[in-house]
Amino acid sequence: MAAPSRPPEAGLPGRFKTFKPGERELAAEFIRSGLIPGEVRPGIPLESEKSRQVARENPQAGYWDRYPWMYKMDLVIEGPEEVWIVEIKEKIRMAALSQLLLYRSLYREQFPTEKPIRLALVARRDSPELRAVTEAQGVAVFLLPGG
User: Is the pLDDT of residue 16 over 70?
Assistant: First the structure.
């Protein structure tokens, strides 16, 4: 399911509109690093229960009526053999793991692909205990310098 073109006020792909200020620079640095090669798409939206409710309650509701209630993935990187869903955080946090697991489930449903879907967390500041749990769930953790 491809999203319609965004109006100018919603931002354009590559402008990192969904990131907090510190995360924006971290995302740009990660993309430049080339650690995960492929086509990078920032801010890809996923329908949520609330956005679907809006559509049920108002069948005329368009994409941009539902957009505020959609989840926005930080980055999707599509390589030749796999798709990566990447979450950007200044510090490794428990919430990132649950976000990634939810995003993978919704992505499979809304963007069917034969390619395996991999998960990654990019952070500057480590939390060894949380990193161990995150990696045990199959999430690749990339720690970039500066934290």
Answer: no
At 5 the pLDDT is 43
What gap in Å lies between CA 90 and CA 144, rounded to an integer?
10
The residue with tokens 């990131």 is 19
Q: Which amino acid is at 115?
A: K
Q: Which domains does the chain have, with CATH numbers?
A: 19-143 (3.40.1350)
Contacts of 120 (CB under 8 A, 6+ apart): 36, 84, 85, 86, 87, 139, 140, 141, 142
φ and ψ at residue 118, rounded to 5 degrees: -110, 155
Phi/psi of residue 63, nearest 5 degrees: -55, -50
Q: What is the DSSP letter of 60?
A: T
Cβ proximity of 27 and 74 under 8 Å: yes
Model confidence at 7: pLDDT above 70 = no
What's the mean pLDDT when you consider all of the chain? 88
122 with 26: CB under 8 angstroms? yes
Tell me which residue has tokens 């749990």. 133
